[in-house]
Amino acid sequence: MVSMKGLLVLILFASVVCVYSHHHHLEEKNLTDEQRKKIRDEVEECITESKVDKKLLDDIKDGKDFTPTRELDCFSACVLKKNGVMKEDGTIDQDKPSTNDKVKECRKLAGADACETGGKVMECFAKNNLIPKF
C-alpha cells in the first residue's frame, strides 16, 4: 500500500492527465468520490505494473532531488495510457485539441518507447507547472 504522501503525488501524476484531456486546471474539490477511487485504483495498478519505488514517489512529493528511473518513466506511461492520453502503441494522442501552448509542446515529445515517452511528457508537464496542486 502507498503512504498518504505517496498517494498524493500519484494522484497529482494521474490528475495531470485530466488537465491534459479537459484543457483546464483540475481541483480536488471538483472530483467525485467515484473519480477519486478510479484514480487511486489506476495508480495502484500502475505502481504494480511498473514496479516503481514508492520511496522515489515520496521523494518527488517532498521536493527532494531524484534521478528518474526506467520504472518511474513506465509508471508515467501507464498513467497516461489508462487515461487515454497515450495510445496503446506508446504514442501520444495528437487528436486531442488544446488551447494551452505548453500542453501542445509537451505532447509532441517522444522517446524510444512508451516508457521513455511517458517520462518525457510527465517531466514536461512538471516543468511547465501543468500538474495541479491540491
From TrEMBL:
It holds the Pfam family PBP_GOBP. Residues 1-21 form the signal peptide. SMART domains: PhBP. One of its GO terms (molecular function) is odorant binding. Coiled coil: none annotated. GO terms for cellular component: extracellular space. The keyword Signal applies. PANTHER family: ODORANT BINDING PROTEIN-RELATED. This is Odorant-binding protein 8.
